[in-house]
Amino acid sequence: MLDYVVLSLQIIIAVIGVYQLVLAFFGWFRRKKRTQFAPQKSFAILVAAHNEEQVVGALLENLKTLNYPKELYDVFVIADNCTDNTAAIARKHGVHACERHNPQLRGKGYAIEWMLKELWKMPRSYDAVVMFDADNLVSADYLLHMNSDLLSGSKVIQAYLDTKNPQDSWITSAYAVTYWYCNRLWQLPRTNLGLANYLGGTGMCFDTALLKEMGWGATSLVEDLEFTMRCVQKGINPTFNFDAKVYDEKPLGFNASWRQRLRWMQGHFDVARRYFFPLLFQGIKERSWSKIDTAIYALNAYNVFLGGVVTIILYADMLMPGGPRLTSIFQYAPAVFMTISGVNVLQYLMAMFLEKAPLKTFKFLLTFPLYLISWYPLTMYAFFTQNNKQWSHTAHTRVLRLEEVQSKQAS
Predict the structure, then answer these.
(1) pLDDT tens track for 38-53
(2) Model's pTM, two decimal places?
(3) b/e string for 69-78 if b means 16 or more Cβ within 10 A?
């Protein structure tokens, strides 16, 4: 019985892995740029912030210089349960400081839900809502791209996510490599194939009418993934804009990275548990490959968890007296599996070349495997603590300007 279960899990994991590998080939090319429209849409830019006095000023300066008519966008800083000068800094920069105090309902999802209700009460209405984190920096043409996508029919849009400090440490470089890989070989293939893209937590743009119709309702630890699932369930595919770039600050040390990724995986398990089967069955019933693909994406946390469990079981079986008793699919075609594993590893290098990653970041590929391996114990711990819904704050301290980030990227 155990052999049958372990073998079945190996086959499922292998099929999902090969499926993603095939999808990645569709990210090797980019279609022609979309039609560009003159500025028409108005935007409410929401900046989620919890004790971000060190970095929020740089973002607000950045937002003032966007290449878009100033009368067509307003900035709202959500000072969520702040005990520092975040709200005062927002007012100093001449933007709306919206202070929220609710220590019982902490976290970005709750803050956004509260802010949207406040926004709907205001006398001015906006065509779309954009969401950033306080540590972000934004390309000057961001709103131009969102405007064009909205006028082309998109309702939910995710920008290209990059890191603003990829060369600070081996951890920040690992995040950067992962972002380049996901943008190029996860997001772009789905764009090219007409599938649903997934939201990344920041750099997101939403049609206002859609938000009012659906409500936010995404208050899990991974509100971006949760809202993605809700959209796809309703037949609304989020789209991806490769040219609108948002730069995100990443933690310098392993411990801070562990805490951040643990929160992500705990939330991912929660969302997968609630949305995988309904979305999968809906996709099969409607013959919607987009819904099936999104359901598979929701399963990623379980895929990593089960992959780690199966690996431990197989190695333990090999070390038992009397030799292995369980079947390993690797035994049937070792050359094939070695090739597939090699190609999977090379995908990260390919993504870096395709995305023209800074030359200085390539040296960090030596430590990148440690980052990848760390996902297995982290995911296992997240599985057993997934009922912990307590949001944890990631401190941001790296103050950079957009010109500095773009200059370092070119080096």
Answers:
(1) 999 999 999 999 999 8
(2) 0.91
(3) eeebbbbbbb
